[in-house]
Amino acid sequence: MKILHCPLNGPRNISEFAYLGEVKSAPFPDAGTVEWADFVFMERNPAGPVHEWWIHLATNYVFIVERDTRSDTVLGTYRVDDPRVAPLLAGQVAP
Amino acid sequence: MPFALLRNRRRPDVRPPRILPDRPALAHTYDVIIVGGGGHGLATAYYLAKHHGIRNVAVLERGYLAGGNTARNTAIVRSNYLTPEGVKFYAESVRLFKQLSHELDFNIMYSERGHLTLAHTDAAIRTSRWRAEVNKHLSVNSELIGPDEIRRICPQLNLSNEVRYPVLGALYHPPGAIVRHDAVAWGYAAAASRLGVEIHVDTEVTGILREGQRAIGVETSRGRVHAGRILQAVAGSSSRLADMAGFRLPIRTIPLQACVSQPLKPFLDPIIVSGSLHVYISQSARGELVMGGAIDPYPLYSSRSTLDFTEGLMGHMLELFPFLAEVKVMRQWAGIADMTPDFSPIMGLTPVENYFIDAGWGTWGFKATPVCGTQLAATVAHGRPTTLIEPFALERFSRFVQLGERGAASVGH
Hints:
The structure holds two protein chains of two kinds. By secondary structure, chain A is mainly beta. In chain A, 14% of the residues lie in helices and 38% in strands. In chain B, strands 1, 2, 9, 10, 11, 12, 18 and 19 form an eight-stranded mixed sheet that branches. An eight-stranded mixed sheet of chain B has the order 6-7-5-14-15-16-13-17. The radius of gyration of chain B is 22 Å and the shape is globular. The A-B interface holds A 14-15, 18-19, 33-34, 37-38, 40-47, 52, 69-72 and B 237, 239-240, 248-253, 297-302, 304, 308, 341, 397-400.
């Protein structure tokens, strides 16, 4: 994996990007400390396809990458408002 | 041993004894099953048999013996950590390492070299002083030293101010040592099997059997095995195995790469580490320079090597040793590291009864091999964590009592 296709900037060198972590569902603000600790620290950390937050550092553009962690290949990159990742982000919005 | 070689030199029928017996048949049940045949797992098996009399133990290893991070680390042993919990733990490990060749009757080639952690910024000087004071308070030999003293200890080092990151000082830790890593694992394996521990290589665990909240055995590629207690010690696959057992870990799996140069005449005695330059270097007994750097920039389960890593590492190394510019890199490899949010390991109990864990060893696991063995053996034998490893419990994360060791990781991550 040397080139990442940024939804905003097109194909760019991997060194221009930073990994921000797995896409997880945030708990509601009034959730207990155990739920929050779980959200902050625990990882699914799968060996296989996973959706992750990445940032293009030069333009400060945050987006979602689908990646296979066994083969080091990118399966797709998505804008945050892409309907294909909408189900993943559903839990992110507080009521 | 050398005399046996001389005595038997004309006798082709005399073969050296095998270090390990052949792989035995898998029994139906064991008192303790240890998943993972690396240094930590083998050490635990040995101390279970030796200190606690639990000899009906099986070590299950997916690949070959000690072929994971035990074979891929850079073999450095030190105890100059930052938190009192960490310093106490690693100081005990250094003490055990020093006597390990005698204990196991197996030469682990322990070589005390001195360990210099270079500081290039005010912040690094501050952390070094903090580490030195915590270390001295706990009787660990560490000192913050200036450039003159560094020059005396390592005259080869480039201490010029005409570089991007001039050296301002260093944390000097005289007990820092390097050890033959394979010998540690093989020594433990041989000693453990002499005490009756069974070592099963090429035996992959494919599932954890549970009865309610209790673990009762494992499903393997060679059939189902029951066990009174189970310990997982599988760096690089910790999250996957924990997932089989039914709980999650605060771990990201990220490769750590390293490389060695062609062999050179011995010229570098101390171990040199620079956090700001992301590099650590030592010279092995074979004369190769063993070099490592920071972990890769993103999680991955593949131990591939990258040119980016070598390029960055060499650029930084040449700032410290410009005269090595003509030396060739001979081998490069990667190990799969379990990175925790606070740069401390996870040891002890899990949410599953009778199921114990040894994980989250990131880039610092080899130096803990003996102490991990004694403490986890006691933990598994008594069913509760020892005082030395209590602070490293998995449940520290749900109580927000992390153990920040990032400042003492050998290189900045």
